[in-house]
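Every protein is a chain of amino acids, and every chain bends into a shape of its own. The fold becomes a row of whole numbers, each drawn from a learned catalogue of backbone shapes. The protein below has been through that process, and both of its lines are reproduced in full.
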Amino acid sequence: MMDFISVPLVVGIVTLGIYKLFELFVRKKERLSIIEKIGEKFDASMIENKFSFPSRIFKNFSFGSLKAGCLLMGVGLGLLVGFIICTSTITGYNMGHDIDWGVRDTAGIVYGASVLIFGGLGLITAFLIEMQYSKKEEK
């Protein structure tokens, strides 16, 4: 049924694998050269009694997972609200093949708009949580 996609998919996966393999070796070379450059300037007396852990482990805390979680929660909520809107109106009762194209177009607009609105609200929520956390850290 989906034979048209199998060949490009396999070619893409193989190409990505080869690219990542080359990238792995190049990064290893870069890291070794950086270690060699640092090794020339490094002296063992530099770390005498100066080796301590920072007081805050999460000083550079990233909120990427919070943003992704809030975005996905907003998208899911948007899909749910779009489904409820479509099923509560006449669109949901006539989802067969005899439905008018305008009604389907309207349903698509409702789904798209609700997903974008609630996804944006999810990102705003993540931003507000991040701002509260940063204000708490400053105190």
